[in-house]
Every structure is written in structure tokens, then in C-alpha cells.
């Protein structure tokens, strides 16, 4: 696996591989601190391209809190070893000054999709996400880009950006990878102390409670969200940021679960903010 | 000359011409209502590429006033004939719904450069410009794009966007083309009644007065802008929107003319808003 940290070198690699050799390139954008969820993205990318570029870039523009940015885990050596093992061909790990040089002032916003859910609690977050992903697309020129469904709203924002800006990139989504007890894998899980780690199970349990409510015949968002919220309320270490039932495409709040609805939640466990989601499908009666 | 009005057909043309044939493509984005200034952009584009695409798209997102959008001159047949005569290979003239289909919600902002001058008077204007130019770049995939220096701030915003987003496009600037009496060519000139047309000469005269002040040894922005403003004040039909001396790169106001400074102005003649600018250079004493 080749490691690249300069924009110009990354562009040159891509020109050569795509232009001269006619190969298909996939991009897996990450912020490092890799876990099995990230590696599943690399595996999916491999199946859809000849070469896989994984980027590791802790994007300052998408952090709404300085403390979160400061304590975001960084371990490039370990990340590189994991990516090589998963079959990545290039690790692109630029410095912040490569991506946001002095004077940089261009940003991309996706409007409605960035408003609800995490967008309502993390001002500027999705603007930072859309901007850095567009920059990475320009630099790497991927044919395919892979994102995880754990960051469901991020995936929706990026799909919308690709469509609206006529970008020539296929966006692929990879399912959430979970720990044995159901906790969605996240780089932030490593911030959890032992008791918090046990408590964090409540997110998956809340989604399961919402799903059980639907299976039991509940249709209203109020009842389904209440089932999830009640589950979270049983965990003393959990503080709910939001529990919402939304349209899986527009992310607009729904009052009833139709064919499909997305149950999404953000929960603080101590000083760590975790998110999770599940698409609920109404089965034919 | 080929006329294309669908995004997908434009993309297919570009893929073929660039990818298969390896030709260099230039884009000249316009809003139609073409004049000799636009045609000079096509001529410049021809010199830097094998194929020239001229787009004609009255971009709703860059109009801050509905009346301005409604009365913006449209004459696609005449535009097509002029572009063919000037040597364009493709006229790309999509409908607004092609570029902004229902649900489109992604926008590009260039922050500091869009604040002063026209940006202070036309809220959202440069956001609309940056967004549509990025979309056109995605669709046409030009190697080169040509813009006129009359819209100096627009040129600065686009250069910045290209740099910040690592777009693989060379931006070329073409000098302002003027009528015999100095009036900068503009599609909006055709709105001017005869007396207004005569009055509109005051913009170029004001720039010349500013330049004369520098030649006479004036150094302060206050004195140089006053020379221009005094000239405009002599024209009863003129209403000044702004007269400003700024750094040609950052567009930040300067208090003194250094090596180079940009004198820029926007003036209403009746219900028509006109802009013009000139780079002032201090000569060695």
C-alpha cells in the first residue's frame, strides 16, 4: 500500500491509474481511528473497483466543538496497517493545511437535508462534511465512493450533493457493523469507560424497542419514538439528544410509519455522543 | 455548431470528445443576450482548446431581484447565430429545471471574496454564480473556462472556488470590451433609453478620472474615489451604488493605492444597474 500526503501527488496517482491505465478507482473517506465498520467499507470498495484509495483526514470543518476535535482519536500507523490488511492500495492522509490552505474560503451546503437530526444539534457539521467530500472527490477523482449507513444523514447529504452537482461518482452505502451486544461500531466508542460501554448498549436496544413496537402494530411516530425513548430512559448514564422517526429519503419528520421510516437517535453517554439508526419496514398485515 | 439542451447529452458529448478523442475542451459560460464582449471570450477560448462549448443559461439562482430576472433579455436564436459565427462548437442551453431539478438544494459559497462590492448589494448573487459554474464544470468537464474581466468580482470568486475545490480547470480572463465612447459592453445596456445610453458614459469617465488622479500623484483611496464620484455626480441620471478602491486579489478595501489597486463601481442609470472596473497601477515616480 502506498501512502500519500500531498494533494498534487494524489492527483497525479489518480490521473495515471484512471487516465493512462483505464482502471476504476474507489474512495473510502474516513477520519481514521479505524474499526471493523471502516474495513467493511474497504471490502465493499474492492468489489466495485480496481484500486481502492482510503483517506484518513480528521476534518476540522465538520467539528462543531473544539474539544471533540481535540480528543478525536488519531493513530495513523495503526490505521495504515489495518487498511493495508483490508486491501487498500493507497492511504491518502493529508494535513489540514493541504485541504484548507491559507485563504481557503469555499464551502458546500446541502440545505434541507442538513437541517434535522444531527444537523439541528451540530451547526455547520454537514457543511464541513459536504465540503471535504467534494474536495476529496476532486483530488482522488473516484469512480465509486463508499460510506457507512451508521452516518445515515451524512450519506443522504452526500448522495444529494452528488446528484445536485452532477458529480460522476457512484455512491455506495455499506450496512452498519455492530459489536456482539448490538452497539454500532464508532471511533468514539473508545472514549467510553467500562460502565459507559455497558450503558451504550441502550442505543441498539432503543432501536429494537421501536422495531418491536412496529411489529406489534404501532403506526404513529409518537408511539414508536416513545418506545425507543422509554428504553433509553432505563439507562441512567444516557442523556437523549434526539429520537426521531423520519422519511428515509427526505429526512423530514413523519407522523406515521408508512412503507418505510427511519428511526434515528443521538444519545450522550457521559461526555461521548453516539448515534445509531434503523430503517423500520411495515410488514403486510 | 451543435445545440444541446440536456445535461446527459452534454455529458456524453464531453466524455466522447475528451475521453475518446483526447481533445481539449473550453467552456464559455454566458447568460445569453450576447455582445462583442462574449464573442471575444469565444475567440480566446478557441486559442486554448480544440473544441469550444458556449453555455447560455439565465441562472435564476444569481438574481437577487425578480424584476431583473424577468426582464433579462433572452434571444436564443440570435445568440446561437452569433456563437456559431464566433467559432463555438456546441451551444449548451439547458432549461432551469435541468440545472435545478425539483429537490435540488446544494449550493457553493465563496465567503470573504463574495462580501464586498456587488456582494454587499446583491445578496446571494455570488452563491448563485459559484453554484451554477460548478454545475457547468461538472457537466461540461472543460479543461479551460473563460470569463470576462468586466465581472471582476465574479472572476475572483470563481478562481478562488477552482483553487479551493481543487478543480482541474484553467480559468482564463478576457479584457473588458468597450463601445466607442468607453461604455463597457453589457447585456443590460440594451435596457438603456437614448438619454440613459448617453449618460452611461459616466462610468468609464469616472474610472478615467480615478486613473488621472493616480497619474497626478494622488495615493489615497479617499482622493481617488472622490475623483471618480465627482465625475459621476456630474451626470444627473446616475445614482451611485458604490465606488471602491480594493486590493485586486483579496478585494479588501485599501486606504492607499499600492503597486496595483482595483477601482470598481456600480451605478444605476434609471432602472438599469451597470458595473465597471479598472486596475490602477502606480507608475514609478
Describe the structure.
The structure is a homodimer of 285-residue chains. Chain A is α/β, with parallel strands linked by helices and 285 residues long. Chain A starts with a strand and ends with a strand. Chain A is globular. The mean pLDDT of chain A is 97. Chain A has helices spanning 7-20, 36-48, 66-71, 76-86, 96-99, 118-121, 125-140, 152-164, 194-199, 201-215, 221-233; strands at 2-4, 25-30, 51-56, 90-92, 106-110, 144-148, 170-174, 238-246, 260-269, 272-281. In chain A, strands 1-4-3-2-6-7 form a 6-stranded parallel β-sheet, sandwiched between helices. The first copy, chain A, has 11 helices and 10 strands. The first copy, chain A, has 2 domains: 2-174, 3-Layer(aba) Sandwich (Rossmann fold), CATH 3.40.50; 187-276, Pantoate--beta-alanine Ligase, Chain: A,domain 2. In chain A, α10 runs antiparallel to α11. At the A-B interface, β5, α7 and α8 of A face β5, α7 and α8 of B.
Question: What key phrases describe this protein's structure?
Answer:
six-stranded parallel β-sheet; Pantoate--beta-alanine Ligase, Chain: A,domain 2; 40% helix; homodimer; Rossmann fold; three-stranded antiparallel β-sheet; 285 residues; 22% strand
Amino acid at each position: 500500500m502506498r501512502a500519500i500526503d500531498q494533494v498534487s501527488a494524489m492527483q497525479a496517482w489518480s490521473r495515471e491509474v484512471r487516465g493512462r491505465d483505464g482502471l476504476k478507482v474507489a474512495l473510502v473517506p474516513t477520519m481514521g481511528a479505524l474499526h471493523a465498520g471502516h474495513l467493511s467499507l474497504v471490502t465493499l470498495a474492492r468489489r466495485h473497483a480496481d484500486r481502492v484509495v482510503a483517506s484518513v483526514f480528521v476534518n476540522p470543518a465538520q467539528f462543531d466543538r473544539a474539544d471533540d476535535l481535540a480528543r478525536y482519536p488519531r493513530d495513523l500507523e495503526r490505521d495504515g496497517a489495518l487498511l493495508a490488511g483490508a486491501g487498500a492500495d493507497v492511504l491518502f492522509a493529508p494535513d489540514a493545511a493541504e485541504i484548507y490552505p491559507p485563504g481557503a474560503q469555499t464551502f458546500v451546503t446541502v440545505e434541507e437535508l442538513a437541517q434535522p437530526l444531527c444537523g439541528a444539534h451540530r451547526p455547520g457539521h454537514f457543511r464541513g462534511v459536504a465540503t471535504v467530500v467534494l474536495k476529496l472527490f476532486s483530488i482522488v477523482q473516484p469512480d465509486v465512493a463508499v460510506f457507512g449507513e451508521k452516518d445515515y444523514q451524512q450519506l443522504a447529504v452526500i448522495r444529494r450533493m452528488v446528484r445536485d452537482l452532477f458529480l460522476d461518482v457512484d455512491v455506495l452505502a455499506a450496512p452498519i457493523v455492530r459489536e456482539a451486544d448490538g452497539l454500532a461500531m464508532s471511533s468514539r466508542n473508545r472514549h467510553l469507560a467500562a460502565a459507559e460501554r455497558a450503558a451504550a448498549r441502550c442505543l441498539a436496544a432503543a432501536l429494537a424497542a421501536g422495531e418491536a413496537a412496529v411489529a406489534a402494530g404501532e403506526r404513529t411516530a409518537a408511539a414508536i419514538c416513545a418506545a425507543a425513548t422509554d428504553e433509553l430512559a432505563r439507562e441512567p448514564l444516557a442523556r437523549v439528544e434526539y429520537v426521531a422517526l423520519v422519511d428515509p429519503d427526505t429526512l423530514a419528520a413523519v407522523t406515521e410509519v408508512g412503507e418505510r421510516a427511519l428511526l434515528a437517535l443521538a444519545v450522550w453517554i457521559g461526555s461521548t455522543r453516539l448515534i445509531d439508526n434503523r430503517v423500520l419496514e411495515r410488514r403486510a398485515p
